[in-house]
């Protein structure tokens, strides 16, 4: 069963409902995974999504912060969620399509501004969150699964605008990159985006702080699509919809797409 999937940190699903609808109308992925919804589940504006055929939704939410949701045109059953690092945050939700493929939608903590857990609690929480993900994948090896989301780490040198200048900036520090690699290895996850686009600068996030984000182009690839080895060869057509970063009242993230023939 072929299907297309997109992942997008929307930075408030209610505030940015118009551009979610725009994406669904113009790009029509079968499954859309959203992070940082910043909404209780019962306040997510599902009516407009349903009118476009996205009648299936599973989500975890909280007021004003975090939140993850999966919208689907295809039937999907909820698999559950996990509270990694015991933060009590809505950062993970998982569903399963009728073809048996499980989709895990993650919003990994950003980690604050200082890459030192001794002085920055949020950085420690980020590392602990990833470590518990790693341990879970070791204990329960994932099969026939896709992992997507804002993982808040740009792992490769060509995933950031300047490797050298960002080595001490949260999201690209060596300890984060190493911890993410351990997490990926624990589940034997394949980076589908880089499987399809193996070389070259590639970004999915541009800061609001830049006066002209497009001209400055100081981006980072924080948003990812991974798959287990049993279905990774079925993944293809990866792309990042850079144009969405320039839509009206945009998120600071752009949607990342992939297709699967499973």
How would you describe this structure to a colleague?
With 262 residues, the protein is an alpha+beta fold. The protein has a single domain (2-261), classed as 4-Layer Sandwich (Deoxyribonuclease I, Chain A), CATH 3.60.10.10. It contains eight helices and 14 strands. The strands form three sheets. Strands 3-4-2-1-14-13 form a six-stranded mixed β-sheet. Strands 5-6-7-8-12-9 form a six-stranded mixed β-sheet. A two-stranded antiparallel ribbon has the order 10-11. Helix 3 (121-139) links the parallel strand 7 and strand 8. Helix 3 (121-139) packs parallel to helix 5.
Q: Which characteristics define this entry?
A:
Deoxyribonuclease I, Chain A; alpha+beta; 262 residues; 26% strand; single chain; six-stranded mixed sheet
Short description:
This protein has eight helices and 14 strands. With 262 residues, the chain is an alpha+beta fold. It has one domain (2-261): Endonuclease/exonuclease/phosphatase (Deoxyribonuclease I, Chain A, 4-Layer Sandwich), CATH 3.60.10.10.
């Amino acid at each position: 069963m072929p299907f297309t999937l997109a992942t997008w940190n929307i930075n408030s699903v209610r505030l940015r409902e118009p551009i979610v609808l725009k994406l669904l109308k113009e790009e029509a992925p079968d499954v859309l995974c959203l992070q940082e919804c910043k909404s209780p589940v019962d306040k997510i504006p599902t009516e407009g999504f349903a009118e476009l055929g996205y009648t299936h939704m599973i989500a975890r939410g909280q007021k004003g912060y975090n939140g993850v949701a999966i919208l689907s045109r295809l039937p999907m059953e909820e698999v559950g969620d996990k509270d990694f690092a015991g933060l009590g945050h809505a950062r993970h939700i998982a569903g399963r399509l009728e073809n048996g493929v499980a989709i895990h939608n993650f919003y990994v903590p950003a980690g604050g501004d200082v890459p030192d857990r001794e002085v920055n609690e949020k950085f420690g929480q980020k590392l602990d969150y990833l470590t518990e993900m790693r341990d879970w994948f070791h204990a329960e090896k994932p099969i026939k699964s896709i992992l997507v989301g804002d993982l808040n780490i740009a792992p490769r040198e060509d995933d950031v605008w300047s490797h050298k200048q960002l080595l001490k900036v949260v999201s690209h520090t060596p300890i984060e990159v190493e911890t993410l690699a351990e997490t990926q290895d624990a589940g034997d996850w394949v980076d589908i985006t880089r499987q399809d686009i193996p070389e070259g600068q590639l970004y999915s996030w541009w800061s609001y702080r830049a006066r002209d984000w497009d001209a400055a182009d100081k981006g980072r690839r924080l948003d990812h699509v991974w798959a287990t080895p049993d279905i990774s060869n079925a993944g293809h057509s990866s792309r990042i919809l850079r144009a969405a970063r320039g839509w009206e009242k945009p998120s600071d993230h752009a949607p990342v797409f992939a297709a699967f023939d499973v």
